Structure formats: C-alpha cells, structure tokens
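Record format v2
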Amino acid sequence: MNVKNIKSFIDFYKSLEISTCIAPLPRSLEKQDQKQQVIQKSKILKKVKFNPKNKEEKLKELVEEIKASNCDLKDVATNTVFSDGHNDSKVMLIGEAPGAEEDLIGKPFVGQAGKLLDKMMESINLSRRKNFYITNLVFWRPPGNRNPNKEEISTCLPLTKKHISIIKPKMLILLGNVASQAILSSKEGISVMRKKENYYIDRDLSLKIPVKTIFHPAYLLRNPIEKKTMWSDLLDIDEFILTNNII
Ligand code: URA
C-alpha cells in the first residue's frame, strides 16, 4: 500500500467515524510471540516427560494390573511382591520369584539370598537405598520355593516387560537362569550367557538395553566355589557402569 492509498484508507475510516482499529502485531513482535509460545510448549513437554509422578502413577497402575492378573500363584501367596529401590535408578535388577521371607514382608530379596546380593552390589558401590531398583520376573512365591512353571512365567513376563519399559534403566542385571532365559527369550544356560554381550530389545518401544546376566545369589549360597566367578562378573559390571557413565 503506498502513502496515497494509506491516506485514502484512513479518510475512508474517518468518514465512518471509526477512530480505532485492531492492528496485527508488528512482525518483530509476532516472531517474539511465536518464540515465547515454542519455549512455553517445550517447558510443558519436558514437565510431562520427566515428571517423576508420572512414572510413579504408571507403576501404581502396573501394580493394580499385576494384582488383577490371572496367575494361580496369587491364590496361595501371602503378598504380591513388587519392587524395592528408587524408581529413577539407571540400574535395574531382576530375580526369579519371591521366597518365604519376601512373601511375608512383600518386598523382593529381603531373605538370606537378598542379604548376600546387597553385599555383592555394595562392593561395586550399588545399593538399593541409593542407585538400583529391584524386582522379580514372577510376583508371587511359588509353593515350597519351586521354580515358576511355564504358565506362571508366561502370565508374568508381559507385566515384567512393562515394568522394564516404565523404569527404562540404562542397564539390566538378570539374576540366574530362570529370569535370564525368560527375559532374553533364550534357551542357553547362565554359564554360557554370562560370558556374552546381551541386550534386552523391545522393538515396539525402540528400547535396547545392555544386559549382564549373573548367577543367582541363592545359587552362590549353595555353591560358594563360584564366588570367584561372581567377583569377576561384578568387576565387569563396575567397569561397564564407569565407561558408559551409567550412574
Ligand atoms: N529369590 C528371588 O529370585 N527373588 C527374591 O525376591 C528372593 C529370592
């Protein structure tokens, strides 16, 4: 619009007795306004993404889903044993199934094997009070501490996988044959698996988490001769954590 046109435009408005009008923001201000909106939106997104309450809520929902699931073990157990440790930990440990003491208290690894596990982890500066999260593949005690059977594992496995996807650790430590074979869909024994580089992969969620499989602490209690092997695995875990800045 040239000056002449602007003048006739104003005259036209004056003739209609209109003295004010709503003008759009000058371009520079408009850009600033858009920038502000982008910043505001990303702040909201960050809050949603990193809100710890969000994770807590998902875990609460998962507990309800577990309690409502169709596993026979539920009927003979005293408690559902879910987890212990900080849910924002970068290291997640998964055992097999609760034993007698865990069943009574409702927390994983509180018996003799759990005490040994805590000592082992503390030797490489890992503690459930500080920096690891722990759960089991199966959430109820199998009677007489037998191994969980195929049906029990197939009921609990999708829930455990959901558990992993909520915690999203940077490293998984699987304890013993049963948890390792189920979570890695492998038929290999722990003695073979522990020497390999393993990953837990969930393609739907684009998750690829490094895994270390180690002997179950209960096995170690029965076979103290394997302590040397365990010590070497713990050193590997420690080195992996340090070189990959996991904690
Ligand atoms: N053994 C497990 O695998 N889990 C527990 O919680 C206790 C013993």
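The radius of gyration is 28 Å.
The mean pLDDT is 89.
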